[in-house]
Amino acid sequence: MDKLEILFTKLNLEDDLRKYFKEGKLVKVKTSRKGQKWTIYLELKEILPPDIYSLFVDRLENTFSDIQDIELAIMPVKNYDEKLLVDYWPVCLKKLKCVSQVMVVFSDRAINVQGKTINIEAYNLVEKDILNKCYNEILTLYKNYGFGKINLN
Predict the structure, then answer these.
(1) Does the structure show a pLDDT above 90 at 10?
(2) Which of 24, 38, 71, 114 has minimal CB crowding within 10 Å?
(3) Taking the model in full, what pTM does it have?
């Protein structure tokens, strides 16, 4: 049994969810010195649908509830549908820790994607400042979803 299958067993992950991870691989689990943060690195053929990603992270957090912070990082996937960048926007907003107003301000805001660039319209300087404060965190979250290097305007 490979490492990913062992993880699936610990999470009680159903077969209909496991199919999204076919040919996947658990690359490594990085832990902090105090063991309160785990980063689980997966290599997948395709980027997970956002709802499956969220469900998997919820399972990780519930199963390993004694760990303070669990992060799932999917190694960059080369080819993906640009629509997934848009689909992950609400997931990204929920995970942001930088500024609490981000979700409220930008949750109903449509984003525009051109290639590997996400364009978000800021209506004023306050919104622009909020986005600037969250810039690096947004890029990190998208990288962890499996998108690799993207740009944010």
Answers:
(1) yes
(2) 114
(3) 0.92
